[in-house]
Design goal:
single chain; mainly alpha; 2 domains; DNA polymerase, domain 1; hpI Integrase, Chain A
């Protein structure tokens, strides 16, 4: 079977352009690949198989229909829809230089805009909630000790799940100053400082599992029973188990819909409430710019209330009206005479 032009461009885009010319991370390449797997699935449901798909089949109308299909059929969120659109935009920016004959149609596809998504309230735990959550693992068992180290590490560093998965023991500095090197989006590394008290749990776990030995320095810091990296689903399952236990113990401290990212939000909020500058919080979380970090300042109602109370000046008139007779001396004397 003769290869199509779409298969040629997509293969070159994923295997050469993204990793070698753009230096995209493995996570980015996987995300973009998943986008086109979904696109191929959609096209096949409309009668065009992957081996028959060519560039002329992919139009603006078809792409918009694909995005609608993601939301309606796949039940994807608006943010996921926009993420898939970003991958499609990137692909056609590349293709327009490889095949300028059809550049007008490609640019129409690139003109598709992001869809506005509702911004839900930020879910995070209080310090007491974090403390309750970390009390749930059974530390009499090896798996419980691993899970305690994992959850504590997620909170202390504010790292993303994808970052946690790829951390190895060589990234942890166990001598002063205690730091952890985290590689985030776009393969950008950042150094996150941690306190000795916070590192105690991690050091104990690493010692128990031989992760301080030179031959294990590149081993996954957190692994499953087969010694492989924990998956995103695996970490979410671990967290979900202990969230459920903590909610049973005290539902007032553990809100619903707590996710792995909620621990990251919790760490950022607690740093902010402790008076840490937003610039430092940005660097710890690995945000590209300070505007992203400002969402925590906007979300913290406690800090807003305290700021308003400090700035408050009484300007409203006294609305407590005294009865007329209280200011009338003659009337008061008359009433007392009874």
């Amino acid at each position: 079977m003769k290869p199509t032009d779409f298969s040629k461009y997509l293969t070159d885009y994923l295997t050469r352009y993204l990793p070698h010319e753009r230096g995209a991370s493995a996570n980015t390449i996987c995300s973009y690949r998943d986008t086109f797997i979904a696109y191929l699935t959609y096209m096949e449901s409309n009668g065009i198989k992957a081996e028959k798909l060519s560039m002329v089949d992919i139009t603006k109308t078809c792409t918009v229909s694909f995005l609608d299909w993601l939301e309606k059929e796949r039940k994807c969120s608006v943010s996921t829809r926009n993420l898939r659109l970003a991958a499609i935009h990137s692909f056609f920016k590349y293709v327009q230089y490889q095949n300028p004959d059809n550049i007008y149609e490609y640019q129409k596809i690139m003109s598709i805009g992001n869809k506005k998504a509702p911004k839900p309230a930020m879910n995070y735990l209080t310090v007491e909630g974090i403390r309750l959550l970390l009390q749930q693992p059974d530390i009499t068992k090896a798996r419980g000790r691993r899970n305690l180290a994992l959850l504590s590490f997620m909170y202390d560093t504010g790292a993303r799940v994808s970052e946690i998965i790829n951390i190895s023991p060589q990234c942890v500095r166990l001598n002063k100053p205690y730091t952890i090197i985290i590689t985030g989006k776009g393969n950008k590394a950042r150094v996150v400082p941690v306190l000795e008290e916070q590192l105690t749990i991690l050091r104990t776990y690493m010692t128990e599992n031989g992760l301080l030995l030179p031959e294990n320095m590149q081993h996954p810091l957190f692994s499953n029973c087969w010694g492989e990296k924990l998956t995103r689903a695996g970490i979410l399952n671990i967290l979900g188990t202990y969230v459920k236990m903590a909610r049973t113990a005290d539902p007032t401290l553990i809100p619903e819909n707590i996710s792995c990212h909620s621990l990251r939000h919790s760490r950022a909020m607690h740093l902010l409430q402790a008076g840490v500058n937003l610039v430092y919080i940005r660097d710890i979380l690995g945000h590209e710019n300070i505007q992203t970090t400002e969402i925590y300042a906007r979300a913290d109602s406690k800090l807003k209330r305290e700021a308003i109370e400090k700035a408050y000046s009484k300007v409203a008139p006294d609305t407590k009206i005294k009865p007329v007779w209280q200011g009338n001396g003659k009337l008061m004397d008359f009433l007392k005479s009874f």
